[in-house]
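User: quick one, sequence for these tokens?
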């Protein structure tokens, strides 16, 4: 059983408290992304901004917002598709609306459309004063035959 299969099984069958350590690896661990809610219909996560996420002008790098949005959307999309397959992001369109230097940010993702071959999700990132910082839309491809992924 692959690590991806193990994670997908955990996402659909375990309580969030038990899934969080599995999700908090790699990039998510680096930024400290913490899931507060995770279902196939909605995902909410938060993280604290610090200098380690800044671009040279001293504000959060836009790539952080893109990556957080795609990560949270992909995780929720994986929960929704369950044991029918995997999801992969095929388009990420993220707008940056407010500069941030410090504080806690919260991302909320909800589906716009979920079909047989693709899903479309929207996400908003808000600051501690509930001001919109960034918003994004991610299209996911639903992949049933996962053995074909990343093969030449």
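Assistant:
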């Amino acid at each position: 059983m692959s690590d991806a299969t193990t994670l997908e099984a955990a996402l659909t069958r375990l309580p969030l408290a038990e899934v969080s350590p599995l999700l908090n690896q790699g990039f998510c661990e680096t930024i400290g992304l913490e899931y507060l809610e995770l279902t196939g219909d909605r995902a909410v996560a938060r993280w604290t901004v610090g200098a380690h996420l800044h671009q040279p002008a001293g504000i959060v790098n836009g790539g952080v917002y893109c990556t957080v949005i795609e990560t949270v959307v992909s995780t929720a999309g994986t929960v929704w598709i369950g044991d029918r397959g995997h999801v992969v992001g095929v388009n990420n369109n993220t707008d940056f609306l407010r500069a941030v230097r410090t504080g806690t940010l919260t991302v909320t993702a909800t589906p716009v459309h979920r079909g047989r071959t693709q899903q479309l999700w929207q996400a908003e990132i808000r600051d501690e004063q509930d001001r919109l910082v960034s918003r994004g839309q991610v299209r996911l491809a639903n992949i049933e035959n996962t053995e074909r992924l990343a093969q030449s």
